[in-house]
Write a structure and sequence with these properties.
The complex is a heterodimer of chains A (about 425) and B (about 675). In chain A, about 10% of the residues lie in helices and about 45% in strands. By secondary structure, chain A is mainly β. The longest helix of chain B is centred in the first third of the chain and has 58 residues, at about 150-210. The chains are: A mainly beta (about 425), B mainly alpha (about 675). The interface between A and B is medium-sized, with 26 and 33 residues.
């Protein structure tokens, strides 16, 4: 089938882009536990955050004991069957004292990365010199999430203690604090196309869009409307500080918003939250009404809360969101809004998933202290396994002669 | 498509294999399961589903059974491996506690075994199939690195445990052997002594109570004499006063041994008997019991039988002695009484202990024994014509500490102790006054006094109350009630402000004419006990009013506990007949049946007929498994079930409540705080 499609591409009947997309989609939809690759188990506790660098080569992971690890995902062993080795590890005694909430490579630079933790520190590390963090920022409260501006690469939005602060690493300190809006913030994400647009998610399920150039007003996203509101006026009088809220916030999720991801063109946003069950929503940006264009609920009863992160494969035909669901990962088709596949393999709760766009692979990390590789390139792997089998003569005839399902004859009872 | 019959067969086989309770999978059944499941991939899928369902049961032995089947299938089928590995996290959760919140179910020994067996199996699977199944390798690493399971240890432990088991068993058998040798030598020493004692005691018994057989022996000799001269028999009989040889004289021998009067002639024999009895009781019987314990652990059956024979011999002898009724002759000195073997000390009777118990009320009311009535009446000392009245001091029982009379009596007694002299002085004063009064009035007054006294005696006495206040008030108006707001709260006012409103009492005039008298009954101490004959020969000492918890209704009985009244007798007999009818026949002795079963292999036990379709108990359903839900059937739990059950607690509580309520109404009903709760 594949060869026929290739002929079409060669003959100019099919655009190469379309072919590429189709093949990507096929691989992504075929995700299953990789039968050839494993990630070297070096972790001592559960994983909360995963990130791939811009070259899709180095996998950064942050663990709940405050340490981080970098794995090389490229395979130089000259055999398909390989283990992804750990190349760098957090040196002892320099790591965070509490669990890491977010790890992130700098955009377009795989020599530096940032980690933030519940102990209130945001650290910037040099991957070539990991002995000490290059810079440290102390925020008073625990940091739930941070995100580096993918366009200019120097402003980091930090969500700590329910507030949003902007750090400029060129200045070396916090430059701005977003106004309080009567909600405890939990999740923050920059728009990859508009460098001043910042999306913020709260514990109460409010989704707020800020333009950091002018914070007098903000947009609050509800399921069927986008409300433009003025920021609350803070008055300091004799009876303490009172904030005047001009309008109440509307909810995007009924539970907390645990994770957000933009599509690569910045036109769509995917949020993962709770509303009794797990809930994934797809939003259109820059519209005034009906911003929510897709909702998917799945899983068992879920209170929300916890450190989860989803990832989006948006260069495939139905955009697919990979979202954790207790001990498995659900592949959600966000066009038709249904759960397409459940990726089973973890033994404890799954916290994070990262999708490798370049090589169509997935990595998931969970509380069982392991990263599982999901790959959809089944044909290659199967061919390899079969080749190996013929090579070593293990069940050489198995592919030729159909074997009985249960082999009762080899009574090799020991 | 799945065939329903095959699915049913698979389900049945899986159930049967997993609930066998053994460590080994039945090969025949497994082969059948494999042939059924191996028909297609769907059947194999279905089989795994059923197996996982069995694994989810809350019983570790079932899980172990299911795992053993899984293990076999895993080794034999590639497709099954793939299927199981897809659900491997569930499998691990159910077998090796990979989720620390879900622990393995009881029984604990089976759970431990299951965990160990699964770990060993996973290790084996890993070494065999890790190349082909990445997920297996991942799981293995998860177990090893995350759950910190030491597979080498699990493997080693199994071998080590087996060895240790063997050593322990050898040690145990050695120990038992040593003990058995010890008791064997001890027995050899003591057997002669015991048999000597037993023979001596037997001889003593035959001396004391000659058996009928002994008598016939003598007669037999006589008969042999008579046989020589058969013609003489009639003559002889006549000499003995028996005219007709066909006359049959039947002598009724009581089955129980007769009384033996201790005389000077047999004192020595009885003394020897007593000595031997004590020797057996204190010396040999305990040691025999010890031997039995040891012998029951050893494999030597002949030894056990020997000891049991010895025990039964000794016990028979002791029983015979115990049944002997020794009656002391009058001339016995008191010194011999003192050296009785009893270890108990003589203690004074407990306060309130009544040696002689009266016959129950049933007898009294029917007036079978008049003396009892009199005694009863005397003890209560209640004049017959006086009906019950409140504040009747006579009726108020002094024994009941809750009554006014009792309190007053106690106070008076106290006062008397404190100032005895004062009382005497006042008493003299009143006496003088009385004499003065006597002197003044004439004879007519005397008669009037007597009449008044007579009238007063029969006049009802009542404390002063509202009805007496209005006694002679002919024109009564119904009382009106005005609502008074006692707490005029500033903000908190009732929804309807009815303060100052006046309305008539709904009861009308009757509320001023009536008087409520609560009848509490009188305190009646229990004066009789159940007195049903017990197995020990004593009478049941349970004291209760109407019903003994063990022997039912309390009825009148004579000295030895037999019922006196004919209706009671007939009732008891009917009950007994009913119980006999329900009882299995005599030959249904469990030991006898066991013997029969051992010899012939037939179980002749008659079981009660099954009523309807009774739900099978766990142990009936799965005979190979241990019942984890079985409640321990102890006397305590059985008693608790009866005594502390909800209904009986409720009943007792309500009775007690109503009694105390009535009591309070009677005594303190006119007090304000009690008057408020007038329900």
């Amino acid at each position: 089938m594949l060869s026929g499609v290739i002929e079409n591409v060669r003959g100019g009947l099919m655009k190469p882009d379309a072919f590429r997309k189709a093949e990507r989609t096929r691989r992504t939809l075929n995700f299953s536990l990789s039968s050839t690759a494993v990630v070297e188990p070096v972790f001592s506790s559960g994983l909360f955050s995963l990130n791939l660098d811009c070259t899709s080569r180095f996998l950064l992971s942050g663990a709940s004991d405050g340490s981080w690890y970098i794995h090389d995902t490229f395979n130089f062993t000259q055999s398909v069957d390989h283990e992804k080795k750990c190349v760098l590890k957090c040196p002892p005694r320099t790591c965070h004292t509490r669990s890491i909430s977010t790890v992130e490579w700098f955009p377009s630079d795989n020599g530096a990365f940032t980690t933030s933790s519940y102990d209130g520190w945001l650290c910037i590390w040099d991957a070539n010199n990991p002995g000490q963090p290059v810079d440290k920022y102390d925020r008073e409260g625990p940091i739930y999430r941070h995100h580096t501006n993918p366009v200019n690469g120097s402003i980091i939005a930090v969500c700590s203690g329910g507030e949003i602060n902007l750090l400029d690493i060129r200045v070396g300190s916090a430059i701005q604090k977003l106004p309080e809006v009567h909600a405890q913030m939990k999740e923050v994400r920059w728009n990859p196309f508009h460098q001043s647009q910042l999306m913020v998610g709260s514990y109460g399920g409010n989704l707020i869009e800020w333009d950091i150039r002018s914070t007098f007003q903000y947009r609050c996203y509800g399921v069927d409307q986008v409300r433009l509101s003025r920021r609350p006026v803070v008055t300091r009088g004799s009876s303490g500080i009172t904030t005047d809220s001009t309008s109440s916030l509307i909810q995007a999720h009924t539970g907390s918003i645990d994770s957000m991801k933009f599509s690569s063109d910045g036109q769509e946003l995917y949020t993962f939250g709770a509303s009794g069950k797990m809930e994934v929503r797809r939003w259109r940006m820059g519209v005034t009404n009906d911003p929510c264009i897709g909702t998917l609920r799945y899983g068992k009863k879920h209170k929300g809360g916890g450190n989860f992160s989803i990832d989006v494969a948006d260069n495939v035909d139905p955009p697919i969101v990979f979202a954790p669901n207790s001990t498995s990962v659900i592949a959600c088709d966000m066009k038709d809004c249904h759960a397409m596949k459940e990726l089973v393999g973890h033994f404890k709760q799954v916290n994070c998933f990262v999708y490798d766009e370049a090589y169509q692979q997935g990595y998931s990390g969970g509380n069982d202290a392991g990263i599982i590789v999901w790959s959809g390139n089944k044909t290659t792997e199967q061919t390899y396994v079969e080749e190996k089998a013929t090579k070593y003569g293990i069940r050489a005839e198995s592919s030729i002669k159909p074997k009985p399902l249960i082999d009762l004859d080899d009574d090799d009872d020991d | 498509m799945l065939d329903i019959d095959v699915c049913k067969r698979i389900t049945g086989l899986v159930e049967q294999l997993s609930t066998s309770g053994t460590d080994i999978v039945d090969k025949k059944l497994f082969r059948e399961l494999a042939t059924n499941a191996g028909q297609s991939e769907d059947y194999l899928k279905f089989t795994l589903e059923r197996l996982l369902h069995q694994l989810e049961r809350k019983h570790s032995e079932i899980r172990l059974g299911a795992f053993l089947v899984i293990d076999l299938l895993f080794k034999k089928s590639e497709y099954f491996r793939e299927l199981l590995l897809d659900d491997f996290h569930i499998f691990l959760e159910l077998t090796v506690e990979s989720n620390s919140e879900k622990l393995l179910p009881p029984p604990i020994t089976a759970a431990k075994k299951l965990k160990q067996r699964v770990l060993q199996a996973i290790h084996k699977w890993y070494s065999n199939f890790q190349e082909a199944h990445k997920r297996l390798a991942l799981s293995y690493n998860f177990l090893k690195h995350n759950l910190k399971i030491d597979f080498d240890d699990a493997l080693k432990r199994n071998a080590f445990e087996l060895q240790q088991d063997l050593v322990e068993r050898q040690r145990h058998s050695k120990l038992v052997g040593k003990k058995v040798d010890g008791i064997k030598s001890e027995m050899e020493e003591k057997v002669d002594e015991i048999s000597r004692i037993v023979t001596e005691m037997n001889n003593c018994f035959s001396l004391l109570i000659p058996k009928p057989g002994d008598l016939f022996q003598d007669e037999g000799q006589n008969e042999s004499d008579e046989d020589e001269s058969p013609e003489d028999t009639t003559v002889n009989l006549r000499e003995h006063g028996i005219s007709d040889p066909r006359t049959v004289i039947s002598i009724h021998l009581p089955s129980k041994p007769q009384q033996v009067r201790i005389t000077e002639d047999n004192a020595a024999v009885i003394e020897t008997l007593k000595d031997h009895y004590q020797e057996l009781k204190n010396g040999y019987l305990p040691s025999i019991k010890k031997w039995i314990q040891v012998a029951s652990k050893s494999d030597d059956e002949s030894l056990f039988r020997k000891v049991m024979d010895l025990k039964s011999l000794v016990e028979e002898e002791m029983k015979q002695f115990e049944e002997l009724k020794l009656v002391e002759s009058r001339g016995r000195s008191s010194s011999e009484d003192e050296d009785s073997d009893s270890d108990f000390e003589e203690v004074p009777d407990k306060e309130g202990y009544e040696d002689v118990v009266e016959t129950p009320p049933v007898v009294v009311s029917k007036a079978t024994t008049d003396s009892n009535i009199k005694a009863l009446d005397h003890s209560i000392s209640q004049p017959e014509d006086v009906s019950w009245r409140p504040w009747n001091e006579n009726a108020d029982d002094v024994k009941d500490p809750a009554t006014l009379t009792a309190t007053l009596a106690q106070l008076r007694a106290n006062q008397a102790i404190i100032n005895g002299t004062k009382i005497t002085s006042t008493s003299t004063y009143t006496k003088g006054q009385a004499s003065k009064d006597d002197a003044v009035p004439g004879p007519s007054k005397d008669s009037r006094e007597s009449r008044k006294e007579r009238l007063l005696k029969c006049a009802p006495k009542l404390p002063y109350d509202v009805d007496l206040y209005h006694w002679e008030d002919e024109k009564l108006t119904a009382p009106s009630i005005e609502i008074v707001e006692t707490d005029r709260h500033k903000f908190w006012t009732p929804s309807q402000d009815r303060a100052g409103e006046v309305f008539e009492d709904p009861n009308g005039i009757a509320s001023l004419r009536t008087r409520v008298i609560e009848f509490t009954g009188k305190f009646e101490p229990v004066k009789w006990s159940c007195r049903a004959p017990l197995r020990s020969g004593k009478l049941c000492p349970r004291r209760d009013r109407y019903k003994c918890p063990l022997h039912g209704k309390i009825i009148a009985r004579d000295e030895i506990g037999n019922p006196v009244k004919p209706e009671d007798i007939s009732e008891l007999e009917a009950e007994k007949a009913k119980a006999d009818a329900e009882k299995p026949p005599d030959w249904q002795d469990p030991e006898f049946l066991k013997d029969i079963e051992a010899q012939t292999g037939m179980d002749l036990t008659i079981r009660p007929p099954k009523r309807g379709k009774k739900k099978q108990t766990f142990s009936q359903q799965y005979p190979g498994l241990t019942d984890v839900d079985k409640k321990n059937n102890t006397p305590r739990s059985r008693l608790e079930k009866k005594v502390l059950n909800k209904a009986s607690l409720k009943r007792v509580a309500s009775t007690m409540d109503s009694i105390s309520h009535k009591r309070f109404r009677d005594k303190f009903g006119d007090q304000w705080n009690y008057a408020m709760n007038n329900d």
